[in-house]
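INSTRUCTION: Work out how this chain folds

Fields: amino acid sequence; protein backbone structure tokens

Chain under study, with its fold:
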Amino acid sequence: MTRTIDDHRRSIDELDSRILKLILERARHTAAVLKLKSRAGKPVDTREREEAIFDRLIREAADAMQADSIRVIWQVIISMGKNEYLKQKGSRSPDGEGETEDHT
């Protein structure tokens, strides 16, 4: 049986919902990590961790997606975690200006 456009669109919609749930879960974990690091007096800005994430995901994609695309997508996802942390912290700065964050 050949799948129709509507069949594919339903699959895409289901995937989008699953992806969104995972992104939101990731943001909650990132916020928790940042909160714990802040409470422990540890630096929360670890660019090395962010670069390690990009490198790992680019390797996992194995040419299925361009490295630049992966980097852009994950920069947005990482910023969601930062924004969740700032929201929980009560900060009103949407871009985190004046603060440094761990984007894990």
In short: The domain at 5-89 is CATH 1.20.59.10 (Chorismate Mutase Domain, subunit A). Residues 83 and 94 are 7 Å apart (CA to CA).
